[in-house]
Amino acid sequence: MAKRKIITIDEKKCNGCSLCIPNCPEGAIQIIDNKARLVSDLFCDGLGACLGHCPQEAISIEEREAEEYSESKVMENIVKQGKNTIIAHLKHLKEHRQEKYLKEALDFLKKNNIKTGFEQENQHAQTGCPGSRTQLWQWPVQLMLVPAHASYLQDADILIAADCVPFAYADFHEELLNGKALLVGCPKLDDTRIYEEKLGQIFKNNDIKSVTYAHMEVPCCFGLVGIIRSAIQESGKKILFKEIIISISGEKIR
Questions:
Q1: How far apart are CA 51 and CA 109, in angstroms?
Q2: Residue 173: C-alpha distances to residues 28, 99, 245 (Å)
Q3: How far is CA 168 from CA 173, 241, 245, in A?
Q4: Buried-most residue among 35, 71, 103, 232 (CB within 10 A)?
């Protein structure tokens, strides 16, 4: 089993209200003995669609050893729940930029001759003006929360940004983010040991084209440079690394 993000349910807090159920079209959660239960690691994608719908705050996300998420198993379960549930699941994958899983789901529907109308809608949405797509296209972005196996990291150019940079640099989206997967963090306020472990997993589990680290000129931001270089080296892969420094006045120094 691999280590990955997956939900955990606090049985003491859960009152069995079932509000999380309709927000988990994958079918990973069921009410058993008046408590919400994670019925299978295979069904939980770890993206947390159910989190905001628990009034008891009984659901959270943890990183642990778990069975690999299986899109085909999920689709076998979802098609039994009807067209609306299928579409909700497909939109969930699209909104979280899970392109690999979305393709697997659409291939499953095509193979089984199941039509929902989402296919045509999705194709139409992808034909828009390229300039209009210069924006954030993934979630989550916080380095602590991004799953190391997220499909949008595969074959990606990654931008690691110190969390002050998007506010300080006016051309952040157009110049720095354009076409890249985003990871955001603060090497001063966060635990850099977790950063080191997470980046190591990301570089080992994915074929990364390049890594760009954009940070402020202040001393605390430089600490992540060594961590990124070390994680790249330990991955044993040749990954192009670039460093961009932004001044406190909002200008690019290099």
A1: 28
A2: 35, 21, 16
A3: 12, 22, 11
A4: 71
CA–chain centroid gap for 81, Å, is: 25
Report how far residue 250's alpha carbon sits from residue 240's, in angstroms, rounded to the nearest whole number: 25
Q: How far is CA 217 from the centre of its chain?
A: 28
Bridge partners, residue 252, by sequence: 246
CATH 3.90.190.20 fits 2-66, yes or no: no
Contact 38/59 with Cβ under 8 angstroms? no
Q: Are 14 and 56 in contact (CB under 8 A)?
A: yes
Question: By C-alpha distance, which of 250, 93, 174, 189 is closest to 159?
Answer: 174
Q: How far apart are CA 3 and CA 47, in angstroms?
A: 15
Q: What is the pLDDT of residues 115-171, one digit of tens each?
A: 888 866 665 555 444 444 446 677 788 998 888 888 789 889 999 999 999 999 999
Residues 6+ apart with CB under 8 A from 176: 159, 161, 165, 169, 212, 214, 244
In terms of pTM, does the model score above 0.85?
Answer: no
For residue range 82-99, list pLDDT tens digits in order. 888 788 888 877 776 677
